[in-house]
């Protein structure tokens, strides 16, 4: 992960995501619904539900929306069902792209994703064509502003908490964990008094692809089109943007 900063990408896309907040809440409601339906409505015993609830709170989703999604799952009939699907493909300059979708209509979603790729300089690949280029990791960001902790101290703290790696920049500490250790590390750091600016399970590219300015614009258009789709939950790329 050396040299890779997710924080730069997160900050760069924050304003665009703020503009789509209503759609984000809709997608999060669906994820909460699925997690609650599969593993129960109690986040204390349903780790998947707790993770998506944390994700919703980080997006400033109102508690009423979260509660409604959980209640809907508790009263849902057996005929209501969503499938989790992963699409893999390429963008400009061969950038690897992973698309996670949650859908009640596979044909609709597949068509929409294919059109987004083909109309924006990309192409869909076969299953497994790019997923091997990413690693599933827990990711935690702690902003350094107002924090009187040096890099060595933070490194000791995150290792004691069970993390794998620490990347440091002028603005932020970026912490990476194994997926199974993410919750423990996050909770430990919060108990130690740290304020977490970001905490999520994510896909980290093993190698980054540099793009020319026009290629960056084309890739951003592709990402935007994918994220506009109601069925698409997350999009990950190997672009260095």
Automatic annotation (TrEMBL):
Reply yes or no: does the keyword Protease apply. Answer: no
* Database matches in InterPro entries: Integrase-like_N, TACO1_YebC-like_2nd/3rd_dom, TACO1_YebC_N, Transcrip_reg_TACO1-like, Transcrip_reg_TACO1-like_dom3, YebC-like
Query: What terms describe the molecular function in GO for this protein?
Result: DNA binding
The TACO1/YebC-like second and third domain extends over: 82-238
Renumbered to this chain, region (Disordered) spans: 1-21
Q: Which Gene3D superfamilies match?
A: 1.10.10.200, 3.30.70.980
The Gene Ontology biological process terms listed for this entry are: regulation of DNA-templated transcription
Keyword DNA-binding belongs to the record? yes
The record's GO CC annotations read:
cytosol
Q: Start and end of every TACO1/YebC-like N-terminal domain? A: 5-75
Q: What are the protein's UniProt keywords?
A: Cytoplasm, DNA-binding, Transcription, Transcription regulation
> What family is it from?
Belongs to the TACO1 family.
Protein name (record): Probable transcriptional regulatory protein BCR21_12485
Per the UniProt record, the source organism is Enterococcus ureasiticus
């Amino acid at each position: 992960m050396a040299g890779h900063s997710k924080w730069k990408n997160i900050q760069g896309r924050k304003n665009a995501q703020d503009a789509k907040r209503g759609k984000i809440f809709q997608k999060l409601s669906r994820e909460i619904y699925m997690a609650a339906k599969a593993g129960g409505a109690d986040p204390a015993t349903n780790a998947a539900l707790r993770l998506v609830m944390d994700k919703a709170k980080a997006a400033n989703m109102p508690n009423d929306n979260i509660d409604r999604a959980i209640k809907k799952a508790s009263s849902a009939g057996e005929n209501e069902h969503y499938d989790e699907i992963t699409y893999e493909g390429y963008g400009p300059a061969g950038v690897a792209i992973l698309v996670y979708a949650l859908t009640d209509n596979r044909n609709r979603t597949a068509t929409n994703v294919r059109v987004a790729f083909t109309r924006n300089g990309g192409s869909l690949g076969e299953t497994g064509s790019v997923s091997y280029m990413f690693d599933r990791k827990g990711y935690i960001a702690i902003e350094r502003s107002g924090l009187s902790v040096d890099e060595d101290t933070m490194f000791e703290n995150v290792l004691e908490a069970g993390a794998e790696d620490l990347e440091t920049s002028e603005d932020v500490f970026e912490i990476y964990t194994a997926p199974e250790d993410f919750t423990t590390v996050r909770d430990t750091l919060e108990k130690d008094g740290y304020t977490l600016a970001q905490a999520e399970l994510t896909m980290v590219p093993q190698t980054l692809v540099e793009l020319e300015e026009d290629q960056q614009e084309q890739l951003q258009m592709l990402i935007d089109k994918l994220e506009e789709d109601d069925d698409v939950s997350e999009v990950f790329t190997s672009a260095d943007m």
